[in-house]
Write a structure and sequence with these properties.
Length: 111
């Protein structure tokens, strides 16, 4: 966008004016500075958008982590319930085995 302003169409008195040369030079410098500021602004905007995306992703990750933790806890609770049930069933079977063993070990009843 650094375009040099051509003044060929103006009368000769303006073409050789040191003041006009200075104004044109300053205008070109300011144009260049504005372009740089626009680029920096775009970079900052992109950084801000990236920061917002990162915040969103961090929130999403936290939510997924909480869901995973909840799922793990539910599985752990279910596993504990299943283990408790199996332990009770095992104890019942062991009690039945003892009863049968007791009957086998008992002296025969003669009638």
């Amino acid at each position: 966008m650094n375009e040099v302003i051509q003044i060929d169409h103006l009368p000769g008195v303006f073409q050789e004016s040191p003041l006009l040369d200075t104004v044109l030079l300053k205008t070109n410098e300011l144009t260049s500075k504005c372009e740089n500021l626009i680029k920096e602004g775009q970079t900052l905007l992109n950084m801000k958008l990236a920061e917002e995306d990162l915040e969103t992703l961090t929130r999403d990750l936290k939510g997924y982590t909480e869901k995973i933790d909840t799922g793990r806890q539910q599985l752990s609770d279910k596993h504990k319930e299943d283990m408790t049930t199996l332990q009770k069933e095992l104890e019942e079977v062991q009690a039945q085995i003892k009863k049968v063993q007791g009957k086998l070990d008992a002296p025969p009843v003669l009638s």
